[in-house]
Amino acid sequence: MSFEAAALQTHGLAYGPIAPRYHSPYFLHIFSGGYSAGYYSYIWAEVLDADSVEWFKQHGGLKRENGDHFRSTLLSRGGSQEALAMFRAFRGADPDINPLLKRRGLDQATPEKAHGDAPPPAG
Prior knowledge:
By secondary structure, this protein is mainly alpha-helical. It has two domains: about 1-35, no CATH class; about 40-105, no CATH class. Helix content is about 50%, strand content about 0%. Helix 5 (about 65-75) packs antiparallel against helix 6. The radius of gyration is 21 Å and the shape is elongated.
């Protein structure tokens, strides 16, 4: 905790009235006991979520036929098939990370392109 307090002070982030909500030891479970690799399953779930949302957008949104497709190819299958195979049956393709990158503002569009300005010069 003393290291964390010093780091906050060094970077001008130590402000008594508003203390950090989470401290470094809160994340100890991620880095010890074999959980570290499992932690990335949260990101994988977000990839599948964002890609599913994109599928719905591409197919006209939340309408009955889309919900029926989602239910019949994925939700109603439970653990009866391998999860990735069920996702592929729903999506019609492998999972795509690009919808998550776009959601987080990390897609290939540069800030200039996002605002309609000319792209930066090459080189």
